[in-house]
Design brief:
The protein is of the alpha/beta class. The chain has 12 helices and 10 strands.
Length: 328
């Protein structure tokens, strides 16, 4: 993979703020959580995007998998990936999941974070385009809607273009912050394509758009579950229970299509059975079979973050990974 990602001044400033917040966040909520009357341990999990990608969380919550493992979980959807590190550092979430390059950048700035699980080691994106766009090359000089700087779609646009012999500057990226805004921009003709995860972006086909590309075959450190190391030390049992629930949930997804489709509709806001089933079939090629963290994928995240910060990546990324939680 080539590391030629384009970031705006806003992204650089946000990264600096998040880095400083992370360094100062050691006073965040990392104390031992207290079990409720039933013995369940409360944790808050923050996730960073609207769509089917976090169905592992949805079904674990709605089908009682978290409860089965003695957890009382609050799911907190953050506005975008830029908020992940700040939420972890402040203690407003105990476990955060999103683009690993964001947390890797924070670690390189001094944040004391650990990767404890991974649900998606590949891009979960599709590109939908107007009828006039027949190939990726047809996008040259055109506008493409993506969510926000530093997001999965920001990285994905660059990698998709490079995989097709193009450069990022060949297109104009339009940051629109939300998936509904992406769909609206494509429908109005303000952009020629969008890049997002199904089923939400898939709705654009109702206005004549067609699927131009899938990025599911491109490796990307996406569904990276991260905790503050201090929280892990003080709440090892809670994080271990989370890992066990995540492992069960990833298996549950594969054997319970109807329940997963129901959860996709509930949490993505898409009410079409057809679109939700489309998303489920797509994500079967993306979801991990186990939550074990692959050091090669995390190394990719650190290489990415180091390239953007013009720094040298750590030689050993395993120090930032805890793969012992699966042990009995």
């Amino acid at each position: 993979m080539k590391y030629t990602k384009v970031f705006t001044a806003v992204t650089a400033a946000a990264a600096l703020v998040l880095g400083l917040t992370a360094c100062a966040g050691k006073g965040g909520s990392t104390a031992a959580v207290k079990a409720d009357a039933s013995g369940a341990l409360p944790i808050t999990i923050g996730y960073t995007a609207l769509g089917a990608g976090y169905s592992d969380l949805y079904v674990a919550q709605d089908e009682g998998i978290f409860a089965k493992h003695g957890l009382k979980v609050t799911l907190n959807r953050l506005n975008d990936s830029s908020q992940l590190v700040a939420a972890l550092s402040s203690g407003s979430v105990n476990v955060g999941v999103g683009v690993a390059a964001d947390t890797a950048a924070a670690i390189m700035k001094g944040a004391d974070l650990k990767y404890v699980a991974m649900s998606e080691p590949h891009y979960n994106l599709e590109m939908w385009a107007s009828p006039a766009i027949k190939t990726i090359q047809d996008l040259k000089g055109k506008k493409v809607a993506i969510s926000s700087p530093g997001s999965q779609s920001d990285f994905g646009l660059t990698d998709l273009l490079e995989a097709n012999g193009m450069k990022r500057e060949d297109v104009q990226a339009v940051f629109v912050k939300s998936v509904p805004a992406e769909v609206a921009a494509l429908g109005s003709g303000a952009v020629s394509a969008l890049l997002t995860q199904p089923p939400n972006g898939t709705q654009s086909r109702e206005k004549g758009a067609h699927r131009l590309a899938s990025l599911a075959d491109l490796q990307f450190p996406l569904g990276a579950y991260t905790v503050q190391n201090k929280f892990l030390q003080n709440n090892h049992e809670a994080v271990k229970r989370f890992y066990a629930a995540e492992a069960e949930s990833l298996q549950y997804l594969r054997g319970h299509k109807a329940e997963t489709v129901k959860a996709i509709k509930k949490y993505s806001g898409v009410q079409s059975d057809e679109l939700a089933q489309y998303a489920y079939d797509f994500f079967l090629t993306v979801w991990s079979k186990t939550p074990e963290v692959d050091p090669k994928v995390i190394k990719q995240a650190f290489d990415e973050a180091a390239h953007n910060a013009k720094k040298t990546p750590p030689s050993d990324v395993t120090q930032y990974i805890d793969n012992t939680l699966a042990a009995a």
